[in-house]
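Researcher: We plan to redesign the surface later, but first we want a full-length starting point. Tokens attached.
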């Protein structure tokens, strides 16, 4: 074994060499008898080489002095793997140590997991411990897969606005309720401590209503349903009967009724005024004065001048009369009278009509 060190020319690092030499005979085989002599010869050669390598820089061997300022000796050619590392920072050494420990733990864990047989062949060794371990692994993986079974319910998108009870009340305050439920809208505020109950709520001084005489109803019952007292209703019925019989008032006649302030709590409101159209040419009004209720007649002037209409008869005589300005009630009667009469033919666009007179008769009808 030969061991020697060499110092590089440009630095202070030393490289250690070692070599094992075995005496070899003429036939190429090692000779144990020559091992001792050759060992001493190799050691002497190594010492001589070490003395030649590690001479000071300012001492040159004879015949190898500097020429033109260049020293005659040469540095040893060594690889980086043969150079001893200099001192490293402590943090770098700790990092390298952690990396080595991590590699060792990873390799050990890999070896242990490789020795564990988690998924053996269930067709081999049925009933053994290895088979039951594999069967347990199979059951566990099957249960885990069934736990991840997807549902088939329809997907529901998240609402744009989270609606809770408070938001629902806000939306309800903005809607309009049906008329059957009062048609109210807006927020209903609860009473606070500032609300004081009243002993008696004040009433409006007057109430104005419109009553309509229905078919099969009487004028007296209409007044009672409108809230008029029995005494006032009887007085009004007597006054109206002086101008027109109550039974001659046509159904559908509307009456404007105004009632005044109550004379006492719980008493009916007195009648202030009542106005309606008794006939086509007569309007009646009952008003309260200083002497009580009084009837006022208000005649309506009616123009009885005959209306004369002239036009061209088309495919429909009724439509031609309506287009010429005939009243809706007079046009059908005149059309029926013209259909039953044969006094004079009326031709237009290939259509023949017979009439007995002018549109003035239809207007009078």
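Model: Full-length starting sequence:
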């Amino acid at each position: 074994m030969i061991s020697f060190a060499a110092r590089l020319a440009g630095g202070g690092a030393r490289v250690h060499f070692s070599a094992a030499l075995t005496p070899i005979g003429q036939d190429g085989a090692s000779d144990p008898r020559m091992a001792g002599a050759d060992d001493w010869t190799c050691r002497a050669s190594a010492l001589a080489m070490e003395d030649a390598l590690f001479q000071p820089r300012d001492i040159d061997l004879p015949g190898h002095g500097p020429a033109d300022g260049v020293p005659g000796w040469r540095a040893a050619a060594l690889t980086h793997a043969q150079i001893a590392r200099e001192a490293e920072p402590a943090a770098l050494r700790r990092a390298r140590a952690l990396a080595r420990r991590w590699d060792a733990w990873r390799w050990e864990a890999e070896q242990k997991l490789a020795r564990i047989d988690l998924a053996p062949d269930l067709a081999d060794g049925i009933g053994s411990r290895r088979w039951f371990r594999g069967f347990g692994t199979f059951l566990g993986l099957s249960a885990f897969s069934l736990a991840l079974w997807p549902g088939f319910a329809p997907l529901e998108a998240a609402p744009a606005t989270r609606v809770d009870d408070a938001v629902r009340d806000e939306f309800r305050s903005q809607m309009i309720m049906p008329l059957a439920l009062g048609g109210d809208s807006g927020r209903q505020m609860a009473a606070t401590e500032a609300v004081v109950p009243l002993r008696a709520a004040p009433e409006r001084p007057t109430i104005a209503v419109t009553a309509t005489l229905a078919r099969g109803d009487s004028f007296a019952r209409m007044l009672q349903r409108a809230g008029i007292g029995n005494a006032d209703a009887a007085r009004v019925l007597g006054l109206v009967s002086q101008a027109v019989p109550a039974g001659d008032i046509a159904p559908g006649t509307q009456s404007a009724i105004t009632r005044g302030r109550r004379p006492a709590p719980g008493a009916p409101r007195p009648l202030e005024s009542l106005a309606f159209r008794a006939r086509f040419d007569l309007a009646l009004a009952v008003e309260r004065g200083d002497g009580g209720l009084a009837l006022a007649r208000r005649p309506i002037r009616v123009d009885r001048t005959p209306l004369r209409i002239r036009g061209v008869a088309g495919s429909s005589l009724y439509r031609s009369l309506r287009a010429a300005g005939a009243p809706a009630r007079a046009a059908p009667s005149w059309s029926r009278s013209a259909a039953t009469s044969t006094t004079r033919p009326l031709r237009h666009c290939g259509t023949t009509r017979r009439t007995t007179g002018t549109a003035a008769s239809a207007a009078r009808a």
